[in-house]
From TrEMBL:
It comes from Crateriforma conspicua. GO terms for cellular component: cytosol; protein-DNA complex. One of its GO terms (biological process) is regulation of DNA-templated transcription. This is Response regulator MprA. The keyword NAD does not apply.
Length: 226
């Protein structure tokens, strides 16, 4: 799951972007000022930053230049109402990886974001996961087994991605509740069991070899049989 920082002072847009990107499987942290955004970029690991240029406590260009001078190397996508050629050139020359003018379509922002994440040479985030004939692309949100695309719900996709990132390791219900559901185990144990069973059926279509195993009293393992 890619982690994003959004620095945007227009709260309605900030909330809308956070909601939309989380629905697409991103983990999103937000800041509504340049100073707050700078501290977050310094202390929170992130795979990319979405940066507005007109902030209440300063120019976003100055923030962009500052973090680049301090060797922040993750992708930065500028989102701004400044639409002149000079503004675009300044943004890109100051260290932006892409420049998107408001108002914009969410699908375009999503496509541009995924593009800069794909081409980022500094990202440690593996977007393509494989186990045997099971493949998952976290950016395109496509999973397949034996060349056949799996029809997964958003939650099932997140669950499969988490299991693949921990393949051949036993994952407890506590870990799934904490990292996938972001909730307490006591509340979500039955829901987790239901989703695991549904995911297992989808992975086992057409007589495929079982790869999602229940380890009694411990949790679940995707991969070799424990």
């Amino acid at each position: 799951m890619s982690r994003l920082i959004i620095v945007e002072d227009q709260l309605s847009l900030l909330k809308s972007l956070k909601k939309g990107l989380e629905e697409e499987g991103f983990e999103v942290m937000t800041a509504s000022s340049g100073s707050e955004g700078y501290k977050m970029i310094q202390h929170e690991p992130a795979d990319a930053v979405l940066l507005d240029l007109m902030l209440p406590d300063g120019d976003g260009i100055s923030l962009l230049q500052r973090i680049r001078e301090e060797e922040f190397q993750k992708p930065v996508l500028v989102i701004t109402a400044k639409d002149s050629i000079d503004d675009r050139v300044l943004g890109l020359n100051s260290g932006a990886d892409d420049y998107l003018v408001k108002p914009f379509a969410f699908n375009e922002l999503l496509a541009r974001l995924r593009a800069i994440l794909r081409r980022s040479p500094t990202s440690n985030f593996d977007t393509r996961l494989v186990y045997d004939d099971l493949k998952l692309d976290s950016l395109s949100r496509i999973a397949s087994r034996g060349g056949q695309e799996l029809k997964l719900t958003q939650r099932q996709f997140e669950l499969l991605e988490y299991l693949l990132r921990n393949k051949n390791r036993i994952v407890s219900r506590d870990a799934l509740a904490r990292d996938v559901w972001k909730a307490a185990t006591a509340t979500w144990t039955n829901v987790i069991e239901v989703q695991i069973n549904q995911l297992r059926k989808k992975l086992g279509g057409s007589g495929a070899e079982p790869i999602l195993h229940t380890v009694r009293g411990e949790g679940y393992q995707l991969g070799d049989e424990p």
